[in-house]
Request: fold
Amino acid sequence: METLVRWMVTAIFSMTLAFAAPEQGRGALPAAKDAFAGVAFREVQRTVLPGNISHYTFDIRVGPGQFDMIRLHRVLKEPTPGHPVRTVSGVLLLPGAPNYFEAVFMTPLISQAIPSDHSIAVFLAKNDIDVWGMDYRWALVPPETTWLGFMKDWGIAKDVQDTEIALSIARFMRAWSGQDYSPLHLLGFSWGGMIGYSLASEETQQPDSLRNLKGLIALDFGVKIENEADRSADYCDWVESDRATLDSGVYNVDNGSFLKKLGALALSAPKGPSDDFPGLTNHQAALFAGTSNELSGGQFWHFVGGYLDESGVPSDLRYTKARVWLDLLQNVPTHFPMRAGAEQDLWFCGKTNVTFTEHLDQIAIPLLHVGAAGGFGKAGFYTTKFTKSKDVQTVLVQRLADDKRQEDFGHADTVLADDAETTVWKPILDWIIAHR
Reply:
């Protein structure tokens, strides 16, 4: 993000704070601040969760367009409104794609199948971490929107820019609410890991005084894949079709609608025959989308580990409750930018260097990679070799033998599994505390 934009964020946010006290629970901030071009707060909400945990959401305008909005989240221990505890450190969580912060990092808000405090955001907050999160602008586009020409240029660069804005605001607000103004850690899950690495690469070109990151946590993701067999040929084949699709004026990937449909049918007609996966019931089809590597055209990883028969058909999930997975499917965003998908395919093809990580070899901040054996796993660790960081730690969650990888702990199990608190979130907490 340009230096001017960074300073504009700080200036606008300081004026915004003059209009709004942290105690207010809900309501639009005064329209006077709309006179500022670029970044402006639109609405603040506060929800109280068990254990004196407060969940704030801030809708923030980041551009002149109707859908140039992001949503910033803050989750922290707050005995009284507007008076948080002194936190150990701060971290910004970025979800995958297509997904929302709440669905991935505060899953009890979208599913009653798990305890109300079973989420990484609440777990970290209970342990005195100042937790922040961001919903990408594309995630907030209403499902009923049909004309999507405004998404033409929405890609990795746009998400990186919005993340820089979110980090700048989070740092300022931390200082204003009695914490400190130091840089934050960033945890990127899946697509969020791609954005995290891109941002860290970009920040190497900024002076230290303008950098927002002090550490990067890649949650089951890597931007460099060593094993050529894992770089599916499908991704390379899709590069040309992606370009043709963009040239034809199609700017949206509608995977979200497909996933919503799978989840809805699995709950409304579980024993009915699946139209999308012939030979399976609707319930089996929804689980199959999570346990197989078919959803993204033959990727080497799966979302959730399951109990599979000889044909690869799941009877149940191993680590995450099936109902939680179905609830997640029904709560994914409808829209995802075609340009972002095309850039991801180019990235995974692995035959072309992408500009977003051209300074990967200059990243020197501490790195933590947490991998799932059935997800990216060790393949994600390879990325660290391209950086110059001298502080690199890795954690691998593996439950089964190597030859049972197809049923092992999966990509989304890292945030959804029944025991994720001890296997995934606790090592992350320990790392954040050690790098406070």
User: Anything to note?
Assistant: The mean pLDDT is 88. The longest strand covers residues 40-49. The chain has twelve helices and 14 strands.
